[in-house]
Amino acid sequence: MTQTCGFAAIVGRPNVGKSTLMNRILGQKVSITSRRPQTTRHQVMGIKTEGQAQCIYVDTPGMHIMSRDRNKAINRFMNQAAGRALRDVDCVVFIIDRTRWSDEDQAVLERLENVTAPVILAVNKVDRLQDKGELLPWLESVGARRDFAAIVPISAKHGTNVEALEGEVMSRLPESVHYFPDDQITDRSLRFMAAELVREKITRQLGDELPYQMTVEIEEFREAGNVTHISALILVERQGQKVILIGDRGERIKSIGRDARLDIERVLDGKVMLNLWVKIKRGWSDDSRALKSLGYDLD
Ligand SMILES: Nc1nc2c(ncn2[C@@H]2O[C@H](COP(=O)(O)OP(=O)(O)OP(=O)(O)O)[C@@H](O)[C@H]2O)c(=O)[nH]1
After folding, report:
1. Atom nearest to 62 CA in ligand 1
2. Same domain flag for 161 and 213
3. What domain range is 65 assigned to?
4. Residue 162 and residue 205 in one domain
5. Are 219 and 233 a contacting pair, CB within 8 Å?
6. Residue 244 Cα, ligand 1 centroid: separation in angstroms?
7. What is the ipTM of this complex?
8. Does residue 40's CB lie within 6 angstroms of at least one atom of ligand 1?
9. Whose alpha carbon is nearest atom 21 of ligand 1?
10. Is position 124 annotated in a ligand binding site?
11. Which pLDDT tens digit goes with each residue over 72-119?
């Protein structure tokens, strides 16, 4: 039988559920999620193989079109990364949040104007719709905004209708041999996943107390016997942020470390010793050179 293989970009404004959808499709966490917008910073590929079809999903960082501090280097990087993901894809999944249509959604739609690949609209979070009756008329009216290849209401969180969405994507992949082995689910290294999981726990535990100018670098990732030793450096911008992260008598950082270790152990399927360090690196989020040194690739 002929094989099919191709790329599908998942796009949408921050916080609509792109990472949640990716994790749901893959049945495993490859992209971190949180209630705060702008959690996803790096482009992560999620690979799903089903029989003869292989789809490589690209989860893009939220498009920061309305961002107030749009000139910051990190915002420029994130917009560029989102733009790059749209070139050369075979299909685009555009996610919106229920029946809302904001200026940011409109801006994402405008970005898709020159995209020739089919665009599937996923109307997410339908589990949270107060009035289910408003869905059908909305689905009909939203179709006027663009000639969508399909419009699929879903709940990424609960998995509702996600298979139908996948079916729409899979049916649009070109004939090709598979680019990845059939059992591989992400292009990212375990080292990268470990850093992302630490960042997820920080974002979840500290919420709005810590601005998103915080990054995690893995300094050591070493297997010894059946234990993986990981040292992670958390970079923040100011002393005040360091104090918040460490918490009263180190309670906060301990709790972050415990949560992150449990998740990393699940991903690695083995025991982990995790050490966290906090360091101040002033102004990194506004410095293109510093971003490069941390692995953010600015054009
Ligand atoms: N009720 C409900 N919540 C959802 C659903 N999908 C996502 N969420 C929640 O919405 C929030 C944002 O989800 P993410 O997957 O991090 O969103 P994102 O689009 O990747 O966000 P960025 O990283 O900012 O681009 C999280 O709290 C999710 O749990 C859904 O179908 N139903």
Report:
1. 25
2. no
3. 4-170
4. no
5. yes
6. 25
7. 0.97
8. yes
9. 15
10. yes
11. 565 565 566 656 667 778 999 999 999 889 998 998 898 888 888 999
Question: Total domain count for the chain?
Answer: 2
**Using a 6 Å cutoff on CB, does residue 79 contact ligand 1?**
no
State yes or no: 182 annotated in a binding site. Answer: no
Residue 299 domain flag: no
Is residue 154 located within the same domain as residue 227? no
Query: What is the CA(98)–ligand 1 centre distance, in A?
Result: 12
**Coil vs helix vs strand at 279:** strand
| 175 within some domain | no
Residue 109 falls inside a structural domain: yes
Q: What is the pLDDT of residues 208-248, one digit of tens each?
A: 777 666 889 888 888 888 899 999 999 988 888 899 999 99
Helix (H) or strand (E) holding 231: strand 227-236
Task: Kindly state the tokens that stand for 69.
Answer: 């501090």
Is residue 51 domain-shared with residue 136, that is, in the same domain?
yes
Q: Residue 273 in contact with residue 221, Cβ under 8 Å?
A: no
Pick the closest to residue 85 from 188, 171, 172, 8 (CA basis).
8
